[in-house]
From TrEMBL:
Highest taxon, organism lineage: Bacteria
Region named Disordered: 286-311, 464-511
Sequence ranges of Basic and acidic residues compositional bias: 475-485
Full protein name: DUF222 domain-containing protein
All residue ranges annotated as the DUF222 domain in the record: 78-401
Organism of this sequence: Pseudonocardia petroleophila
InterPro entries associated with the record: DUF222, HNH_nuc
Pfam families recorded: DUF222
Amino acid sequence: MFDTECPAETAPVSRSVANAAAWPSPEDTFGAIVAAGRPGPSGWLALELDAATDDPALLDDRSLVDAVADLDRIASWAAARQARLLAEFARRRPADPRDSTTGPEAISRWAPDEIALALSISRSTAGARLAQARRLTETLTATLAAHEAGEIDGSKVRAICDATHPLFEDAAVRVQDRVLPAAARQSRAQLVAALRRAVIAIDPEGANERHARARRDRRVVVGAEDEGMASLWALLAAPDALAAHQWLTRLARGLGTDDPRGMDARRADLLVGLLTGRVAVAEPDLDVDPSAGADGDGPREGEVAPVPAGGAGPALRVAPVNPGKPLVHVVVPFSTLTGAEHQPCELAGYGPIPADLARRIAADAVWKRLVTDPLSGALLDHGRTTYRPPAALTDFVRARDVHCRSPLCRRRALDSELDHTVPFPHGPTAEHNLTHGCTLHHHEKHSPGWTVVQHPDGTLEWTTPTGHTYVSEPFDYRPEPDPPPRRPGRSRRVALDWASTAEHADDAPPF
């Protein structure tokens, strides 16, 4: 019933569709699909799903979720099959020898126009799709196979292609092989973090060089938006960006609960005030008069803060909710800190960063000692050396979790809420009954139909109202394994960049 090859006696598709009235009911059809062990995506499975989902109202909640997942697998299968066709088309359109662009990856400058016309897309988009298709069929073949099997969707495929873009072919394959086993159960954000870590581990020197080049390109850009608005966009080193955002958040919270604006609006107004000189940061112990404005008449409409300070000067003064430098949490293996190795390091709230950048942060930081199990990657002990730290237990759980413990959330634990898995007093206030969750997932956990079970190793098992279960694991502190040896004869660079073969992109961004 679910074979991917059509038997000789099978009626043509048109006849099967015409006789659809004689097919089993949607409930029976979908039950048969589930009973078959979730067969691989194919055109035949698409036909079965078409019959099973004709009337969604006849499906129960669990079947609805399963059908949504299966249709997503069908979409991935179709996209992968299209990639194979695009790659074959690209091979049939070699570059003209008279063109300036040469090499085995080059294709005819007119090939993207044929695809663009067929799909009603721009030629630059068509060229990028042709280049990605060739990369998948010639180098990242395991990624294409996972895509065709419905294990990963198009956004994850693009993430793998983008991450391996600057690498030589051999290194790209090793990165792919390292991340694919877990990619099916990860969100795109989690996969991107895993890719960054793998790229740094496979090519540490290249990662340091690419970061140095990227840092030289830091900039601030103004863009026009609708309705009289504009965007102020900054490209910064990751720790600088995170520290700046955290400092704005501290100042925004320091405005107090009476401020009617949301946190986003507060941060935006404070940013403008700080950059234009209308706001200055007060000392933490400075006495402030909440009724006085910069000119003594109270805050005007559009002013940033209802917490101005006395004293001369045109600027309003605001105080952060707590003093001290913004906390940037970086996990650095000791061997990397000493320079013996160049393992990727973890910047909480961002993801993996190169060793050189982590060592620069280490030069101006207060360190905590973490003892981890080298086999499981689990946190075993937590030292406390910071000034006025929170409770040791909170320190330990925060360092163990690193992120919100919803299976797909990457909000850092520092900005999340500590929660009892089994509500207190029925459950103890102990490491094995505490986790971090962002506000949304903290509330979700306590919603009707949701259950969470915490296992001794820190793993959480989430069960949704439909009975589906998903697993969240604590942060893995193990160092990246040594990369396998290079494969001989696979040193060609993977970067099949359409921009290098196109004269001009008709819809490229201005910067």
